[in-house]
Write a structure and sequence with these properties.
By secondary structure, the chain is of the alpha/beta class. It has 2 domains: about 120 residues, 3-Layer(aba) Sandwich (Rossmann fold); about 250 residues, no CATH class. It has 17 helices and 13 strands. The strands form 3 sheets. The chain has a 6-stranded mixed sheet with strand order 8-9-10-11-13-12, sandwiched between helices. A 5-stranded parallel sheet has the order 2-3-4-1-5. The chain has a two-stranded antiparallel ribbon with strand order 6-7. Helix 7 crosses helix 14 and helix 10 crosses helix 11. The radius of gyration is 22 Å and the shape is globular.
Length: about 375
């Protein structure tokens, strides 16, 4: 078992929780470990139909069983149940609900009552370096990522099979079953093309042409991926756009490098792919670690129209960082040049780092090049 960072906080909380995250990141496992009195799973169609047809089912069940802690899984499949949950909490403050879901879009689209003041919102992603005591095989994680089940397996064939199944199940269960798009074929073409843009600045015109969809459909599809927690867009810092003349096109990263590889139908860490994989890995670790630790954080892209670029510009609890992801095991002097110039011209208070795939740390002037795990620890993640 991997102890998740959120578990201790959730255990100590006197309020219930709404825990959102992609499928198979361990939401159900985490909540079951808290040993709730009652479990209701809306991924079971019969259970879903029963509760959808009888709004009084939940109050009746609590009265009959005397349950004080209640776990409702896949709550986005029946958003209306949240109104009942609110009424129950308001009538008995000692009731504790653990609610989990994998689609913020379904909740938002349904105008769901997200129980403000009654539950605490948490997000759960793949396993992060701190949960592994910063010990992981960089090459294996570039191939298979950080999903809990994947980390528990030793056979590569099993890892590949599960990740490939995940990618197809996402399209079927999250997109098709919830009717999030009009044309599943168009969305699938878009998703296939999007894999080629991971880590790059997305040109909607070129992407839409290659995916054979309308240019105006691209932002909508990206929003679906974000709301179903499959990935995240990166935009430039609005405070720097004009001053630094930054490229405004977004970048996009999937929530897990193993899932990205499955969608891309390749688990090779080749010279052609390793740069994008390394950037994907660093992004997911920064993003999910910051969420797990409940940091006040922002993560932005940074590239001037003149071509000066760093992979990530961060603000974490008020502190600025510049982070460049390098696939190489050894860092050369010229690899520090862009970081030094960006910091000097635009972010003089920022600490600058290169996260690389090798085992050794190296300092150039005031900039550190560190192994990924050590770099994450250094910036407090």
């Amino acid at each position: 078992m991997i102890n998740r960072l959120q578990k201790i906080e959730i255990e100590k909380s006197k309020k219930g929780i709404l825990l959102l995250g992609p499928r198979q990141v361990g939401k159900s496992t985490l909540v079951k470990g808290l040993q709730p009195d009652l479990q209701i799973n809306f991924s079971d169609e019969r259970t879903l139909i029963d509760y959808a047809g009888q709004p009084s089912s939940l109050p009746d069940l609590l009265e009959r069983t005397g349950a004080r802690s209640i776990f409702i899984d896949e709550v986005q499949r029946l958003p209306s149940i949240l109104n009942t949950v609110q009424a129950l909490i308001d009538s008995d403050k000692k009731l504790k609900f653990y609610l989990t879901g994998s689609s913020a879009r379904k909740l938002k689209r349904g105008g769901a009552n997200l129980l403000p003041g009654r539950v605490i919102n948490y997000s759960l992603g793949p396993v992060v370096a701190r949960e592994l005591d910063y010990k992981f095989d960089i090459r294996r994680t570039l191939q298979y990522g950080f999903l809990p089940e994947i980390l528990s397996l030793s056979k590569e064939a099993e890892k590949k099979e599960i990740l490939l199944s995940y990618s197809s199940n996402y399209i079927r269960e999250e997109v098709q079953a919830e009717a999030l798009v009009r044309s599943l074929e168009s969305f699938t073409r878009f998703l296939n093309e999007l894999c080629k843009w991971t880590g790059s600045f997305i040109d909607y015109t070129k992407l839409s042409k290659r995916a054979q969809i309308s240019r105006h459909t691209c932002p909508n599809y990206l929003e679906i991926l974000e709301d179903t927690m499959i990935g995240h867009r990166l935009f430039p810092d609005p405070d720097l756009i004009e001053r630094a003349d930054l490229v405004k096109h977004p970048k996009f990263f999937f929530f897990d490098v193993g899932v990205f590889n499955a969608l891309d139908r390749s688990f090779e860490v080749s010279n052609r792919r390793i740069g994008a994989l390394m950037e994907q890995l660093v992004f997911q670790q920064i993003f999910h670690s910051s969420n797990a630790l409940r940091k006040n954080f922002e993560i932005h892209s940074f590239r001037t129209r003149g071509g000066l670029e760093v992979d990530f510009a961060l603000r974490i609890d008020g502190h600025h960082f510049l982070v460049e992801a390098k696939a190489a095991e050894e860092v050369q002097d010229n690899d520090f040049a862009a970081l030094a110039l960006i910091r000097k011209q635009y972010l003089p208070d920022a600490k600058a780092f290169i996260f690389h795939s090798g085992p050794k740390a190296r300092k150039y002037q005031t900039i550190w090049a560190l192994p990924v795990a050590e770099g994450l620890r250094e910036i407090g993640l």
